[in-house]
Amino acid sequence: MKNGKAIGWLVVLAACGFVRAVAAAEADAATAEEAINNVRAAVRFLHDKGSSGFAEFNNKDGKWVWKDSYVFVFDCRRNKMLAHPLRPDLVGQPIMQITDNSGKFIFRELCKVGTEPRGGWVEYMWQKPGAGKLSRKLSYALAADISFTTGIEVGAGIYDEKLSVPELGKVLEKMSDPAKLPAL
């Protein structure tokens, strides 16, 4: 009977370790709210700095990279990646032909939703930082207002297997309506 109790405790302890590991992984995962807030902050930054601010987004150790996410900047009108902290090979390259494994034209979709008044979300497959494999990514894009320039958009994404684009639209709506935000 003692051995049965010992095995039972080992199972409980192992399960607790698993729960802690899952909680730690979730704590390291960017949230939709963080993606929206960081994209909006980046848009404000570029509004103030102009095109001279693009370089800030290429720093993999900079403030625009957090948890398992990052801000990237692209030009829809000129079909070019302007800044990407984890994929410097994409900077300066054409983007409109980039597809995921299902054939979805990622940046064509991001360019469409980014011009909506509040921006929007696009779902696609992309390599998650540190994972070494493709994961489901949902990216939020928003147009940036930069003097004498049009077509610039800012994006950031989350890796989530469960959230849907309509659910993320509700998060965006809530964050865009001051009446729906929690009281401070």
Automatic annotation (TrEMBL):
<keyword id="KW-0732">Signal</keyword>
<dbReference type="Pfam" id="PF17200">
    <property type="entry name" value="sCache_2"/>
</dbReference>
<feature type="domain" description="Single Cache">
    <location>
        <begin position="21"/>
        <end position="108"/>
    </location>
</feature>
<feature type="signal peptide">
    <location>
        <begin position="1"/>
        <end position="24"/>
    </location>
</feature>
<keyword id="KW-1003">Cell membrane</keyword>
<keyword id="KW-0472">Membrane</keyword>
<keyword id="KW-0812">Transmembrane</keyword>
<dbReference type="GO" id="GO:0005886">
    <property type="term" value="C:plasma membrane"/>
</dbReference>
<protein>
    <submittedName>
        <fullName>Putative cache sensor protein</fullName>
    </submittedName>
</protein>
<keyword id="KW-1133">Transmembrane helix</keyword>
<dbReference type="InterPro" id="IPR033480">
    <property type="entry name" value="sCache_2"/>
</dbReference>
